[in-house]
Structures are given as C-alpha cells and as structure tokens.
Give the backbone structure.
Amino acid sequence: MNPVIENLLTRRSVRSFQKKQIPLEDLELILKAGSYAPNGMGLQAWKFTAIQNPQVLKKVDDVIRQVILSTPLENADERTLRMIERAKDPNHNFLNNAPTYIIVSHLKDSLLAMADSALALGNMMLAAHSLGIGSCWFNSLPRMTHHPCVRQLLTELEIPEDHIVYAAGVFGYPEGDIKPSAPRKEGIIKIF
Ligand SMILES: Cc1cc2nc3c(=O)[nH]c(=O)nc-3n(C[C@H](O)[C@H](O)[C@H](O)COP(=O)(O)O)c2cc1C
C-alpha cells in the first residue's frame, strides 16, 4: 500500500507512554509537518509550543488540576465530577505522563483558527506516527483556555496575548498494545 495512506490508516490515539523522550530532531520534524498544514488564506497565524522540560510539563498539569478543582460543584455534569475526583488524586497526571506536550494556539477572534489548528495538530500526529511516535489530542487545556490561570501559563510560555489554545496533544513512544481502530461507520461516505 502507498506508505502515506498506510500511515493515515494505522495511526491510533496513544494514551500510555514510555519515559524515553522524543529526540529533538524528530520533534522538529513533527513541528515542521504541522507548519506545512493547509491554513486559511495562508496566514500561518498559529503558534506551536512544544514542551519537554519536566518542570514545565508539571506546571501544565498543575494548572489543569487547579482549574478543574475550581469548578463549581452545582450543575457539574457526570464527566466534570469524574474530572474533579481525578484532580483530587495527586498521582493522576492530566498529560498521562507523556514526555512531550504540544500546544497549538491561534488568534482568539479568528474564524479560521479552529480549522487551522486542527489541521496542524493532525499533521503533527501523522508525522509522529510515521516516526514510530504515538500521540493523542487532549482537549483539557483547549476547553479551559479562557480561565485566568491558563492565560497566566500561556504568558509564561510566551504565547501571544491575542492567542488562545485551540488544540493540544501528548506525544511519546507508545507503552503497551495499541488497540485496532473502531470499524468505520456505515453511511459516512457517499460518492455521487
Ligand atoms: C477534537 C478532539 C478532541 C479529543 N479529546 C480527547 C481527550 O480529551 N482525551 C482523549 O483521551 N482523547 C481525545 N481525543 C482522541 C479521540 O478520542 C480519538 O481520536 C478517537 O476516539 C478515535 O480514535 P483514534 O484516534 O485512535 O482513531 C480527541 C480527539 C479529537 C479530534
């Protein structure tokens, strides 16, 4: 099979990682692949922030935990209650102890931002897979991007003040078996 198509068909979300770090040259290739994604009007208005420093990874985990623990309990749905329980567990890591975390930020008021960011992270995940590196989109930081604690973190990470987080993913060498993909649903493809 064409290796590009094979790479597309065999990528799976990976949520369990070895401690081994992704070498810098591979990380740079992954980020480069992201930067070549299609983007509205060719503006490249995004920014990719890759974190490998364990202290900075811990800071991201701490901020996610802090935001979850500040959620008002009234009106919390089941998923939120589960997240709060996890946040109370000091052993739970919201980045699944992945050695590398990539944040895709983009202009807060741009109609193109979500699509640009998703395509960029998608490219990075596919590039990673082609290098034997697993990844998973983790939506926690994008979901809480408007929280003041997250803004403070983004500022520390030199993410522009007019940016918010649209996409973020954990990356690393897979640990354990990777489940085969779910069968594709009937009727999702139609050719006229
Ligand atoms: C927009 C988006 C948000 C996602 N958020 C999460 C998440 O917060 N946590 C998680 O474990 N997986 C998350 N995923 C991964 C999906 O669950 C996964 O892609 C899907 O189940 C299909 O599995 P596959 O990637 O192995 O094909 C997200 C994926 C996308 C595209």
In short: The chain is about 40% helix and 15% strand. The pocket of flavin mononucleotide is lined by residues 12-13, 15, 136-140, 181 (CB under 6 Å). The first strand starts at residue 47 and ends at 51.
